[in-house]
Predict the structure.
Amino acid sequence: MLDDWILTWLIALPALGALPLFLLPAGRPQLARAWTLAVTTVGFLLSLHLWFHFAPGSAASQFSQSLPWIEALGIRYTVGVDGISLLMVLLTTFIMPLAVLGGWRAVDDRVRAYHAFLLLLEAGMLGVFVAGDLFLFYVFWEAMLIPMYFLIGIWGGRRRVYAALKFFIYTMVGSLLMLAAILYLVVYHHQVTGIWTCDIAAMGATPLAGRAELLACLAFALAFAIKVPIWPLHTWLPDAHVEAPTAGSVILAGVLLKMGTYGFLRFCLPYFPGAIATLTPWFMSLAVIGILYGALVALVQEDVKKLVAYSSVSHLGYVMLGIFALNSQGLSGGLLQMLGHGLSTGALFLLVGMIYERRHTRLIADFGGLAAVMPQFTFFFLLTTFASIGLPGLNGFVGEFLILLGAFKAAPVFAVLASLGVVLGAVYMLWMVQRVFFGAVTHEENRGLRDLLPREWLLLLPLAALMLWIGLYPKPFLARIEPSVEALLVRARPAGQELRLDAPAASHGPATSLSLPAPAAGAVPSQPQGE
Amino acid sequence: MDSSLSLAAPAIVLVLAAMLVLLAPLPRRRRGGGEGRLSAGIALAGFAVAAALVLRQWGAPSHLGFGDRWVQDGLATYFHLLFLGIGVAVLLMAMPYLRREVLPRLEFLALLLFAVTGMMLMAVATELITFFLALELLSMALYVLAGYHRNQARSIEAAIKYFLLGAFASALLLMGMALHWGATGSLALHAAAPVGGGGQFSPALARAGFWLILVGFAFKVSAVPFHFWTADVYDGSPAPVAALMATGTKAAAFAGLLRLLGPGLAPPAAEWTPVLWWLAVLTMSVGNLMAIVQSNLKRMLAFSSVAHAGYLLVAVVTATPGATRALLFYLVAYSLMNLGAFAVLGLVARKGEEYQSIYDYAGLARRQPVLAILMSVFLFALAGIPPTVGFTGKFVIFAEAVRAGLLPLAVIAVLNSLVSVYYYLRVIYLMTMKDEWEASPAFGVPAATALVLAGAVLLVLWLGLAPGQLLAAAADAARAL
């Protein structure tokens, strides 16, 4: 019973938890904060059930539930998690209480609405990761924009309105084209099989071909590429990340960006293997450009928050590189890096938020010698920095190492260029750390800064522990994702390299007006082979 | 004849209610004093009785009456319920509005009842003369209602413009009907309608007649390039009247369009599909682009209604039973969102409708948080963002278009909704993220309007999440064609 309903409860808990907020008295913001913290913490504890009862050897969708919803259109309420979703769900439920705690003192205006939006956002994000129906997925994918729009636009920094609008419009551009592609897929599936369904798994069994496949793949990829973001579609990111309130930045970097890479894993790779084979060199190039560009731009930032924002562009480039390596090392590394980046960048934004609350500035030039004033803070900042730049023993290393290994097997040139990004990453992070924390105290105002409060310890300890855990013993994580990764590779790898189990399904032929497959790199998906 | 009368019973009830509204309060009026409540009660009772009578016909097989000039099928029943619902909502919005503006209520109610009667007749007509009479009944009432704020130049201007362009459209329609009759000797909109005698069959003349009739309809649904009256008329008309025109009139015109393009009068679909394809594209695109540059919310909603007519035309072009279902579903969705938005607009505009600029919405979230939330829901719904009925409706329409092989049209429609996000979002941004520039008078939310808002918002969200039943009802209705 619990196993059937747990995912629904996980989504419903924050969604319904948002309502009682408005019954709380407006004059007692502390109550709203405590309530939200309680709801998100219960959500995290509930999600731990998934972690412990997930069958690690299986790639199947677990804890799944499917109820009829809009039968006229073949739409069902289907939820479930595989290894890929599992990590993302846990990342979300783990980050949320920290985000609430991190913004504890930062928001004083309209506190109840702020927390309501945080909870609705959590419900939306969890929905995206567990949805097993395309319609359901799209509903969550779009609905999630609304709370984030308000979080940035109402409680953000100086240029918040611009950033919020840019975030919303950018995301909508991709989403709506994806909607068209979803409709096309559903209709195509109906033409081939005679069944009206929006089931995500079933849809993968009727591969498109040729130009239709390429266009549909591009429509999906655009939506996800904007979210990741892949260079050159990244320009909304620095604005949104920098202007968002601390909790918003943490969630954006920690979870929202992963939706893009998650989308590639969930849809683009299994649905459009032929198109992916064609597009892989392009995506790998863009990923490497993103890695180097993000690192170089981060290098010259004067604002710590902006620096961290651009570092995300670089880090997500690694994830994309790993995914498009299309081998198990690359994909596993990409997934682990998604998790790791969520933790370390989330932590960095929290740390930046802490220093901003104390000094109301984030300019590197306004600091210097903080190590002497705030040793505890410095310790955590350094630890997170090391995790971020991939020091062995911390989470960043495992992910980046696997990604580079995978990329090296697939395309050595890209791997070499990406390794250059690792060096640059160390340079911009360490240079920033040196200017902020070491040397003499250059500004008198910084002398009196308080070190970490108990609340902030409470925030940073679990993050630090998890970063160490993944860094030292990633096996439990890898064990849970590996079967899903292998299953994904079977579907996604170009036909020439790997046995294709699902190929005969394409022989029904495309009943569309679009032209027939343009053979690409020996990867025509409609070749039945491997009997 | 007996069965004909029972078919017409809902319409007859509405007409009787309209007369009663005008007559009943006379003794009290002579003494001076509140005439509003009693007449509003009569009108509401009229709507309720009519709805009950319509509901009795729900699910019944289609009937013909009045010498086969009247068809009561599932489609008609569906539209009748929609019109009655719109009528009640407009009535509830209008009562506090008229009290605030110190305008007489009796005449308004009577005209509203006549207008709804006209819409109902438009949905049942099987031949063009009956249809024309119904349209004129609706239009006459609307001409007066548009100028109902008779001390305001804006309102008078709206009435004159609406009357002139409406008369122009009617003339085109009549001319088309005449040509068609001359060519074919038939005015049938429906396979079962009576076919008159005489007339030489001349295909070219019949075509010309059809196209003229179509242009007349294009005026009524405000399709581009026949939309120019829309913004001016909505802008000047009292807010509840604008709501009635945006929702009821448009739905009635689409009911007529469905009948016109059904079997009977229209040439084969291959002839008009390309034209309507372009009409839909133009209507969506021009409506959305024009809405972007509006700073008056009423004008913005007017252009948004033009754009929505475009989305509805996408379903008309698709012309499959599934698309008809989608069209019927979307008409309900569209009516709910617009009734809600216009109800908020009527409140925020305050006395004399002075505050219509979108900048007057700045800081609304601080002054009236609930109203700002409701308006945001309606605007997100209009923009087609889930989990609202606006999204589900668009999803169904676009899905049917793709299914019928009209992928490019669906993509254009999807891109258009992207454009629309921008201007809807701007109002939301002003409400929630800006503070008021200068102090403006406070205002309350009357109970009747609150009822409309609550009903609209609940349905917008509920039908967004659970559209199954309404979709099934729409599918039943679509089967009638």
